[in-house]
Amino acid sequence: MKFIRLPRALWFVAGLIAVVAALLCWPAIQTVRWVGTTDLEVEFLVLDATTGAPIPGAVIDVHSDGGFYEERDPQDFALVTGSGGRARRLCRDTMCCGTSGWNIDTFAVYLPEWYYRVAAPGYRPTEETALQVPENARKVRRGKPAARLVVEVPLDKDRP
């Protein structure tokens, strides 16, 4: 049996092609799609629409139809802003998902099915607004110990 001797340059080109093909396929091979849970802190920041100043004592009335988190049952609750115009609620074990790999790292959280209205003395109340809108989904940030969503709510002064 005779072996055919190939020139070194041909071996080099074949090796280079193999390396390039492996590098191009690597992201597809090493990509993982995952589903899990995380705690999600939903924070409302209520501001004066004209000045941008925080509004303490604003009341956020929330109707929850549940969602993919620990408190799945429909309920109504209210949050009240503190001196910085902020009010928070923690949603435990919220469903999340993403894709991880060589050059990709995505993260998304399923937002609670909340509808909220905001009112404060001296300001016009808002209309009922859904929390589950694409703008809010894009605002969620990973974090420890919880992912975080900040929803800014500007209020207009009440006209006499």
The structural class is: alpha+beta
Most strands sheet: 4 strands, mixed
Number of strands: 8
Could you say what the CATH topology is called? Answer: Protocatechuate 3,4-Dioxygenase, subunit A
Cα distance spanning the termini:
102 Å
Q: What is the total domain count?
A: 1
Specify the helix fraction band: 10-25%
Name given to the CATH architecture? Sandwich
- The DSSP helix count reads 2
CATH superfamily assignment? Aromatic compound dioxygenase
- Point out poorly predicted stretches: none
* Overall geometric form: elongated
Please characterize this protein's 3D structure.
The chain is an alpha+beta fold. The protein has one domain: Aromatic compound dioxygenase (Protocatechuate 3,4-Dioxygenase, subunit A). Helices cover 18% and strands 39% of the residues. It has 2 helices and 8 strands; from the N terminus they run αβββββββαβ. It has a 4-stranded mixed sheet. A hairpin with a 7-residue loop joins strand 4 and strand 5. The N and C termini lie far apart (102 Å). The mean pLDDT is 90.
Produce a short descriptive summary.
This protein is α+β, with helices and mostly antiparallel strands and 160 residues long. It has helices at 8-29, 134-139, and strands at residues 32-48, 59-64, 75-80, 86-100, 108-109, 114-119, 129-130, 147-155. The chain starts with 7 loop residues before the first helix and ends in a 5-residue tail after the last strand.
List keywords for this structure.
160 residues, alpha+beta, Protocatechuate 3,4-Dioxygenase, subunit A, four-stranded mixed β-sheet, four-stranded antiparallel β-sheet, 2 helices, 8 strands, 39% strand
